[in-house]
Amino acid sequence: MNAKEMFLEAIKAGKDIEEARRACGAPTYACVIWARDAGLALPGTIEKIASRNQQIGMHGERIFQKLVPKALNMNTDVKRNSKDYDFYYRGISIDVKTASDTTSGFHYGHLKNNCDLYCLFALGENGSIKHIALLPGEMFAKDSEKSLVVAKSKWSQRFGDFEVKPDELNKRLDLIVDGA
């Protein structure tokens, strides 16, 4: 078995990246690429080197998981990185997008019609939830990515019909599935 095969088998067996990397003797950068190419998630790896925006995004995913505990996390539960969505809940693919409060408002990137639903989190300075919106993936073109910039003062005007309270998020998703 070569180093790549040893690493991938160790990750599939539940070892963390550092343990699997030591076992195969390969450098971290090679292991991350092997895992990515195999569609395997490496929880905890990105956090070590993540940019501020990536950390904000991961924080939003943790919030979503707390609010919708039965949603399957594609990275940790399914152990497959999905470039199209972060969670799967009762037949709905959901991509979580998170933005923190900046002087110009909230910035959301990489939106396109590759999931059933977007869950947008707008966070305050301390990481608390200011707003949540559920947007259907169909609002965006399938063949091109779009970015949204929403001024703080325009959030409700722009997303009022799509806004959801934190304690209602799980119920709203159930409503989509059940129709009642």
Can you characterise this structure?
The structure is a single chain. A hairpin with a 2-residue loop joins strand 2 (87-89) and strand 3 (92-100). The chain has a five-stranded mixed sheet. The model has no long low-confidence stretch (mean pLDDT 85). The chain contains seven helices and seven strands, in the order αααααβββββββαα. It has helices spanning 3-12, 17-24, 28-37, 45-49, 52-67, 155-159, 169-178; strands at residues 72-73, 87-89, 92-100, 106-111, 117-123, 129-136, 146-150. By secondary structure, the chain is an alpha+beta fold. It is globular.
Please work out how many helical segments DSSP would assign.
7
| Total strands | 7
Taking the alpha carbons of the first and last residues, their distance comes to 53 Å
The computed structural class is alpha+beta
Q: Beta-sheet strand percentage?
A: 15-25%
Question: How many strands, what sense, and barrel or not for the largest sheet?
Answer: 5 strands, mixed
